[in-house]
Specification:
By secondary structure, the protein is mostly helical.
């Protein structure tokens, strides 16, 4: 490190690769969620019931959460045996191609059931790519961190989430303001998906300019790795996987309840104006980013687990007022509700990367971290918002926040039960040559 230069400045290229790639991935993921909430129902899922259209559209959104654990296993295998860098490049490319292709799809009126089938297939591709993206981006940052900076470095990919959300919602707000409702529904929604292609080129350029992480290079120098990382995790690290997955539930529940779910319900059952609600959704991500920074700074002074546990309890408390905060019908109260929830969400998931990484040795870390994160995502980001949709359809909008309470308590329990690997265990290797 150059004299007087901070670790962040010294590792700016690595941190940029973790953050930029994560921003692009989350942008891709979020524009689908926004489009699913606004236009995919009538365009791809015809039905006499608006509620049924919204439900089917959000179910297509949830397909990616089924794909994410599959992507975690597939990309984790190569990430643990071939390397973090190459695996991250392929994950980014897969998600970018899937997202861009969505812009070119025919609608149900043009192609019948082929249209929603192709939409779901490409959504699966998005999820497959993101399943391998987050874990690799987190490890890229964490495994390059100097002593005392692990949580702050690990926060880099987390910051990609609020940046991607602002880009996605801001672009949709701009388009819905500039275009008539008919033009936006007809072709305007396709533009954010096309823009993804340019963003992916930028992300690939950044990631191809970085080197492999020091910790993985050290593991490769030993010449040993598990032949099948997934099998080794289930044989040796079942507890770490189970409690790690629980530790990720609150992050996903809070995030998707405050973004895609809130937008879908606010502009249909709750009767908010679409442009007005998109506008207030640009505010919470700044609180989200502030929470990430605050949580990461505290975690480097204490430890990541304590920060996650405190944030999880905070989200459980927020859940008590989440439903009424949206259902009352006040834009100002809705903005406060979403902003407060995202502030605590940022604090909660600021150190999720270094915490999950601490549960698995280097030889299993890509697979273990990615799989636990994405299984938690399948529960918190797909299942809980769908249950919340049913709660509103049944006439109980004030009770949707109870799912945040459950998610927060599940994460608190997961953090309390999980045990980080010891230094000696981290040096243990399997008697298998490194390679595909």
């Amino acid at each position: 490190m150059a004299k007087g230069q901070s670790p962040i400045a010294e590792n700016s290229r690595v941190l940029a690769a973790a953050m930029v790639g994560s921003t692009i991935e989350y942008y891709d993921f979020f524009i689908y969620g926004t489009a699913a909430a606004l236009v995919f129902g009538p365009l791809f899922f015809p039905s006499e019931s608006v509620a049924a259209q919204t439900l089917l559209s959000l179910m297509s959104f949830g397909i990616a959460f089924v794909a994410r654990p599959v992507g975690a296993v597939a990309f984790g295998h190569f990430g643990d045996r071939v390397g973090r860098k190459a695996t991250l490049v392929v994950a980014l490319l897969l998600m970018g191609v899937s997202t861009t292709a969505i812009a070119l799809l025919p609608t149900y009126a043009q192609a019948g059931w082929i249209a929603p089938a192709l939409l779901c297939l490409l959504r699966f591709g998005q999820g497959l790519g993101l399943g391998g993206e987050w874990g690799g981006a987190a490890l890229l940052a964490v495994e390059n961190a100097p002593p005392g900076w692990r949580a702050r470095f690990g926060a880099a990919p987390q910051l990609g989430a609020p940046i991607g959300l602002v880009l996605a919602n801001g672009l949709f707000l701009l388009l819905s303001t500039m275009l008539s409702k008919e033009d936006f529904t007809s072709w305007g929604w396709r533009l954010p998906f096309l823009l993804s292609a340019a963003l992916v080129v930028l992300g690939l350029w950044v990631r191809l300019r970085i080197s492999e992480t020091p910790e993985f290079r050290e593991a490769m120098a030993k010449g040993h790795a598990p032949s099948v990382p997934l099998a080794t995790i289930f044989r040796e690290k079942t507890g770490a996987f189970v409690w790690g997955s629980a530790g990720a539930i609150a992050t996903f529940a809070a995030f998707y309840m405050t973004t895609a779910f809130a937008l879908a319900q606010a502009t249909t059952q709750l009767g908010y104006d679409r442009q007005s609600f998109l506008a207030i959704q640009l505010i919470p991500p700044f609180f989200y980013a502030a929470g990430i920074v605050a949580g990461a700074r505290r975690a480097d002074r204490t430890n990541p687990g304590e920060t996650i546990a405190m944030g999880a309890l905070g989200l459980a408390v927020c859940g008590l007022g989440f439903g009424p905060g949206l259902a009352i019908g006040s834009l100002e109260l809705a903005a406060v509700t979403l902003s407060l929830t995202m502030l605590i969400l940022g604090y909660n998931n600021s150190t999720l990367g270094p915490w999950l990484a601490s549960l698995f040795p280097v030889r299993l870390r890509y697979t273990g971290t990615s799989l636990a994160f994405n299984v938690g995502g399948m529960i918190g980001g797909a299942l809980l918002p769908l249950v919340a949709t049913q709660i509103i359809a049944a006439g109980y909008p004030n009770w949707t926040g109870s799912l945040l309470v459950l998610g927060g308590l599940a994460t608190w329990l997961g953090v309390r039960m999980a045990r980080p690997v010891s230094h000696i265990e981290d040096l243990t290797t399997d008697e298998q040559p490194v390679g595909i």
